[in-house]
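Meet the record:
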Amino acid sequence: MRAALDLCNDKAESAAAGVYMVPHYEQASLGRAFGPLALPDVLLFCRGLDAALSQQAEGHCLVPTTPHGDPQYRANAAVLLGAYLVVRHEWTPRQVEAALVWEASARFTCSWSTGPTEHWVLTAGDCWEGMAMAKTLSFLTAEMVKDDVEMKAARASYTIQACRYDCSWIVPGVLMVGADPVTVIHDPNPVTCSSLIPDGDSTTACSVQSECDPDCDQASTDTVCKDYDRRASVCSFSSPGSLENLDYASFL
């Protein structure tokens, strides 16, 4: 038996795996939100589970467990297990729901919610639908689950993009969502960015260390669309070090 979320740590390079986090935000600001876990953790879990299953002796089985009386842990584990079945074994969301009937209706809340559980909207079943769509569009592939190199490359690509913008990618490289930019740039807080697009003179250093990559700490706080002033990350396929390389088309 293995604690389900511990499978995220089997292929992880840091102790932060398997924990609900939001780029650019401190844990204290997450409010009531507890999941679902981000794409890097989905990939780590799926790869860890696939590797663990491949190492099981014939006639033995692996049983992922969740703590008794912890529905939040169980909901996060359910999303990850469903993701594995969808991405690695090509199950449909309907097949996953049939196998995990109770877990399919497990609900997630947002950080600012004050409503009761029955008013929460996002379900584990919704997350499985998203995984299926990501697989159909090749944002997630079985190769990312079966191979360490493919998994690490996919995680690195997502992480550098998530750290690069003050937004969250809904479709990696294509669609992102963020706070109202007009509200953001008029925030009187001097640390908050003051314009949407860099003007070429952005020099203000980021005052909050990122949890993603040391290079991401070089981000400017002058703009919603962050720019970097040195060294491209090794996981980046193109240098993010100049204004010309910023992906304005996707951002806007």
In short: The radius of gyration is 19 Å. Residues 31 and 112 are 6 Å apart (CA to CA). The beta strands are 2-3, 64-65, 107-108, 122-123, 168-171, 175-177. Residues 71-89 form the longest helix (19 residues).
